[in-house]
Amino acid sequence: METRKIAKGISIIFQPTFIPIALYFIVSLSAVPTVKGFWYALLGIVFVALAPIVLVYILARYNKISDPDLPDRRERFIPYLSIVGLYIIGFIVFWYLGAPSQILAITASYIAVTFFGAFISLFWKISMHMAGIAGPVTALIFLVNPIFVLAYFLLIPIGWARYILKKHTFPQIVIGSGFSILLTYLIIRLFS
Question: What is the pTM for the complete model shown?
Answer without folding.
Answer: 0.94
